[in-house]
Amino acid sequence: MADIRVLLVDDHEMVRIGLAAVLSTEEGIEVIGEAGNGMDGLRLAQEYIPDVVLMDLVMEPMDGIETTKRLMEQQPSCKVIVLTSFLDDEKMYPVIEAGAFSYLLKTSRAGEIADAIRAAARGQSVLESQVASKMMSRFRKPLQDASLPHEELTEREMEVLKLIALGKSNQEVADDLFIGIKTVKYHLTNLFSKLGVEDRTQAAIYAHRHGLAE
């Protein structure tokens, strides 16, 4: 069986040297080239046609997100494994949407990286556990927000909602909370929008249905 051909794209030379050294000891894996930036990575990918690319994210003049996007347009069968120190949303989600096949942190052990390369060659994605947890949280949150819109209310807006659910007027709400009438109206406008209701009556009904009224 032919070796899995791997291209390394990382702007830190010592990282590339280290990866090349540890992967050279792994059976069935061959490092066929190294690039210090995204532009060179694309050029070498066209020249060598790798099976797998280990891709850093933060590089100049072209970062890993744009490099991954362009590589997928040119070679859709190539598997990009992101290998980075970053776990922030503004980098992780865009590169996955761009076509990254797997996402690992540079704290991963050499054996884990090699296993991810072999898995990618079999068509299996690998996500580092912290990455998987963040993705699950991202996809669960919209469902929670959609079913419980009152969770978006501020503490003050919730207080106003509970009082109007008790049938209190704007003036009574203002007196109870020691705020002005204009402030009450401001909070009402905001909570109506967040709850998706049109008036006090609908807001009160919502509060009672969800057990928010005292």
TrEMBL record:
Q: Which residues form the Response regulatory domain?
A: 5-121
- Stretches assigned to coiled coil: none
Annotated Gene Ontology MF terms?
DNA binding
Q: At which residues is 4-aspartylphosphate found?
A: 56
What InterPro entries does the record point to? CheY-like_superfamily, NreC/VraR/RcsB-like_REC, Sig_transdc_resp-reg_C-effctor, Sig_transdc_resp-reg_receiver, Tscrpt_reg_LuxR_C, WalR-like
What Pfam families does the entry give?
GerE, Response_reg
Q: Which UniProt keywords apply?
A: DNA-binding, Phosphoprotein, Transcription, Transcription regulation
The keyword Hydrolase belongs to this UniProt entry's keyword annotation: no
Residue ranges of every copy of the HTH luxR-type domain listed in the record: 146-211
- Enumerate the Gene Ontology biological process terms: phosphorelay signal transduction system; regulation of DNA-templated transcription
Per its UniProt record, what SMART domains does this chain match?
HTH_LUXR, REC
SUPFAM superfamilies referenced in this protein's UniProt entry, alphabetically: C-terminal effector domain of the bipartite response regulators (SSF46894), CheY-like (SSF52172)
Which PANTHER family does this chain map to?
TRANSCRIPTIONAL REGULATORY PROTEIN YDFI, TWO-COMPONENT RESPONSE REGULATOR
Q: What is this protein called?
A: Response regulator transcription factor
Q: What species is given as this protein's source? A: Candidatus Cohnella colombiensis
Tell me the lineage of the source organism.
Answer: Bacteria, Bacillati, Bacillota, Bacilli, Bacillales
